[in-house]
Write a structure and sequence with these properties.
Number of strands of chain B: 0
Protein name (chain A): ATP-binding cassette domain-containing protein
Radius of gyration of chain A: 19 Å
Number of helices of chain A: 7
Keywords (chain A): ATP-binding, Cell membrane, Ion transport, Membrane, Nucleotide-binding, Translocase, Transport, Zinc, Zinc transport
GO biological process, one term (chain A): zinc ion transport
Strand order of the largest sheet of chain A: 5-6-7-3-8-9
Oligomer: heterodimer
Shape of chain A: globular
Order of helices and strands of chain A: EEEHEEHHHEHEHEEEHE
Largest sheet of chain B: none
Strand content of chain B: under 5%
Low-confidence stretches of chain A: 1-7, 215-222, 230-264
Organism (chain A): Phaeovibrio sulfidiphilus
Strand content of chain A: 15-25%
GO molecular function (chain A): ATP binding; ATP hydrolysis activity
Distance between the termini of chain A: 36 Å
CATH class of chain B: Mainly Alpha
Mean pLDDT of chain B: 87
Structural class of chain A: alpha/beta
Number of strands of chain A: 11
Shape of chain B: globular
Chain lengths: 264, 272
């Protein structure tokens, strides 16, 4: 796991095999099959309610799956940055404390991790004083201190301004190169998906399509998928090898990626 | 005032309970579980009545019913068809009412006032030993599992992803709180037992910059309240339980007024 890049011939770090997740009578996810390979950056995209966070939580063992199988890496080698976590100021907690994985983590190690994510000046601040972007960087430092082989980030750029966002993705890209770790992230900011991802998975209850991101495609169906923002979006080349049912009540996002009735 | 045997037992028993209710109370406050405390305490009263009636003993009944009440409340609250406050109103007060009815109907006379308000001056040396044993064991377990307990409290999903058994942590905390309530009933009674968990922890919050100092200060505030409350109760001839809680509340307000200015007020933009 030292070299970057994808290689389907190698053993996957994590893998989904026809995974389905049902909540009540509704399938949040179904027929999910994909592998995550060492040194790879994979981004999940899809409309709201597409099951992106559900997929991440299933991978991490936070929620149970209804069908299928998941190959998971050991929890001690997984770093997780959840979606916009807001810490209750009822518990007094300093950044240093939140970040340290064990009681006896040496101060220089903690400082180095916070420097790596660019929030070292916040080390002695209470966690409740952090802004959204700082908070996510602190959580990233916490994840890194666990020396993970897989980093999972759910909407890491939420509450971060544009410059901070670019810096964050550059940091992730560097971490992949330097440490050879795999990164799975959820994003709806497609224009940054472009910058630093090896593979994009478009999710809508099931995997609609997946492929390498490419320079903006002018294909009309993707303009439809992402609406008027299409011009600034990173689009990716892939093939649709399936059809969706058209009797869905939900407004379709595009002719090819319509939400279906979620019964597998 | 020179403490005689009676007061000495009361002091040790009270301090023993405060020693563990302080740190446990922090978890109650951090997890916003104060209402669970009330449901457990009121369920415990019904448990005492049924425990005595069935011959299982008041303590066993109190623990079992405290756990039942909290488990039921947790399940029902997750349904969201009614708010947690409404479920609490139904369950906690329902079991309080049922408990009162059951106590009055029982053949064995149970002193209702001592159940409701506590009777710390009636503890025996055996009670003192049980209380000390329980609080030292619970403190030991809290210290041993401090990290997972904190992680599961800070953010359960993150803790789960990192391999913490959150369900086991939650169960341990529930059991510890139920046992503490069943034991502390003797000291401050059903009506005020939640205060022994919540008030010292809340008072400690203003003076703490880490979870550990908050747990420590909470235990100290609790012990000081027991000592002050017992002194006050001997001096004023007031009931001991309410006097202990009154002193704790006094400490809370004095602590609030004199609190050091920490820069830990949440900024507006982080609240959205």
């Amino acid at each position: 796991m030292t070299t970057a890049g994808t290689g389907e011939d190698r053993a996957p770090l994590a893998a989904f095999e026809s995974v389905g997740v049902r909540a009540g009578r509704r399938w949040l996810l179904h027929d999910i099959t994909f592998g995550l390979y060492p040194g790879e950056i994979v981004t999940l995209v899809g409309p709201n309610g597409a099951g992106k966070t559900t997929l991440v939580k299933a991978l991490l063992g936070i929620i149970p799956i209804t069908t299928g199988r998941i190959l998971r890496p050991d929890p001690s080698r997984v770093g997780y940055v959840p979606q916009r976590l807001f810490l209750d100021p009822v518990m007094p907690l300093s950044v240093r404390r939140l970040v340290s994985p064990a009681c006896r983590t040496p101060a220089p190690v903690i400082e180095a991790a916070l420097r790596e994510t660019g929030v070292e000046m916040r080390i002695d601040d209470p966690v409740s004083n952090l802004s959204g972007g700082e908070f996510q960087r602190v959580l990233l430092a916490r994840a890194l201190l666990r020396n993970p082989s897989l980093l999972v980030l759910d909407e890491p750029a939420q509450g971060v301004d544009y410059r901070g966002e670019m810096a964050l993705y550059q940091l992730l890209s560097r971490l992949r190169t330097e440490r050879g770790l795999s990164i799975l992230m959820v994003s709806h900011d497609l224009h940054v998906v472009m910058a630093s991802t090896d593979r994009v998975i478009c999710l809508n209850g099931h995997i609609c399509c997946s492929g390498e991101p490419r320079v903006v495609s002018v294909s009309p169906e993707f303009r439809d998928l992402f609406g008027s923002r299409a011009d600034q979006l990173a689009l990716y080349a892939h093939h649709h090898d399936h059809c969706h049912r058209s009797d869905s009540a939900t407004e379709p996002l595009c002719p090819t990626c319509t939400p279906e009735d979620k019964t597998p | 005032m020179m403490p005689d045997d009676l007061v000495l037992r009361a002091l040790i028993a009270g301090a023993g309970v405060a020693l563990v209710s302080g740190p446990l109370g922090c978890f109650v406050v951090w997890r916003r579980m104060a209402y669970f405390g009330d449901a457990m305490a009121h369920g415990a009263l019904l448990g005492v009545a049924l425990g005595v009636a069935s011959g299982a003993g008041p303590f066993v009944g109190a623990v079992v019913f405290a756990l039942c009440a909290s488990a039921l409340l947790a399940r029902l609250a997750a349904r969201r068809s009614l708010g947690i406050d409404a479920w609490l109103g139904v369950l906690a007060h329902g079991s309080l009412a049922l408990g009162l009815v059951a106590v009055s109907l029982m053949a064995t006379r149970v002193d209702l006032m001592s159940l409701l308000l506590g009777d710390v001056l009636a503890v025996s040396w055996t009670d003192v030993l049980v209380i000390l044993g329980f609080s030292l064991c619970t403190l030991g377990l809290l210290a041993l599992f401090w990290r997972p307990l904190l992680n599961a409290t800070i953010e359960p999903d993150l803790a789960r992803a990192e391999g913490t058994n959150v369900a086991a942590v939650d169960l341990f905390l529930m059991m510890a709180i139920a046992l503490t309530i069943a034991i502390a009933m003797k000291i401050v009674g059903v009506l005020l037992v939640t205060a022994l968990l919540v008030v010292p922890a809340a008072a400690a919050r203003f003076w703490s910059r880490s979870p550990e100092t908050m747990a420590l200060f909470s235990a100290l505030v609790g012990i000081a309240s027991v000592f002050g409350g017992l002194e006050a109760s001997l001096f004023l001839d007031s009931p001991a339980g309410p006097s202990i809680v009154a002193v704790a509340v006094l400490v809370f307000f004095v602590g609030l007024a004199l609190r050091p200015v920490f820069r830990d007020q949440p900024r507006e933009e982080t609240r959205s």
